[in-house]
Amino acid sequence: MAIESTTERSIFFDTDEFADSVTITIGGSASNIKGIFDNEMTTIDVGDNAGITANQPKVTVKTSDITNADFGDPVVINSVNYTVNNILKDGTGISELYLSEA
After folding, report:
1. E strands, the chain, where?
2. Rounded to the nearest 5 degrees, what angle is found at the Cα of 59, between the Cα atoms of 57 and 61?
3. Which of 19, 38, 50, 69 has CB 3.0 to 4.6 Å from 13, enough for a Cys bridge?
4. What is the pLDDT of residue 1?
5. Of 65, 69, 62, nearest to 85 (Cα)?
6. CA 51 to CA 102: how far, in whole Å?
7. Percent of the chain beyond pLDDT 70?
8. Confidence bin at 4 (pLDDT 50/70/90)
9. From CA 92, how far away is CA 62, in angstroms rounded?
C-alpha cells in the first residue's frame, strides 16, 4: 500500500518543484505528463575488475499516467528525443521509464 495519496503525488510531480514536462506517445497518442528526469552515470560490471560507464537517462512518473506504455514508445524531455527501453513499476503508483536517446 502506498504511503502517499494522489494529492501528495501531484505535489511531488509539480513542475514548479521537482518535475519536468514530459511528452510520451503511447499507441500513437501523445500525452503531456510530468516526471522527474535523471541522467546519472552508471557502471556495469563486466568482470575481471572492468566496467562500462555511461549515462542512464530515466524519468520517474505516476504509473497512472503511463498505463499502456510499452518498449519503444517515444518520449520528449527538455527538447531531447528518447525511446522507452525498460519500465519498472514499484507497486506504489510510481514507475521509472528507462530511456535511450533517439
Report:
1. 20-26, 29-47, 50-62, 74-77, 80-89, 94-101
2. 170
3. 19
4. 47
5. 69
6. 24
7. 95
8. low
9. 9
User: Cell for 21?
Assistant: 514536462
How far apart, in whole angstroms, are the C-alpha atoms of residue 46 and residue 100? 20
Predicted model pTM: 0.84
101 near 81, Cβ under 8 Å?
yes
Question: In angstroms, what is the C-alpha Rg of the chain?
Answer: 15
Residue type, 45: D
Locate 78 and state its grid cell: 527538455
The closest alpha carbon to 62, from 13, 100, 18, belongs to 13
The 8-class DSSP code of residue 90 comes to -
- Mean pLDDT along residues 23-33: 97
